[in-house]
Amino acid sequence: MKKLLFIFTSGIYLTACSVDPEIKPIITDEDVKEIIPEGWPTPNYNFGNNPLTKDGFILGRTLFYDPLLSADNTISCGSCHQQFAGFSHSGHDVSHGIFGLLGTRNAPAIQNLNWNPTFMHDGGVISLEMMPLAPITNPVEMNETMANVITKLSASGKYKQLFTNAFGDDIINSQRIFKAIAQFQGTLYSYNSKYDKVKSGKEGFTSQEQSGYNLFVQKCASCHKEPLFSDYDYRNNGLSINVLYNDSGRAHITGNPNDRYKFKTPSLRNIERTSPYMHDGRFTTLNQCLDHYTSGIVISPTIDPQLQTGISLTAQDKSDLIAFLKTLTDTKFLTDKRFSENN
Question: What residue ranges define each of the domains in the chain, with the CATH number in brackets?
Answer without folding.
Answer: 29-190 (1.10.760.10), 194-331 (1.10.760.10)
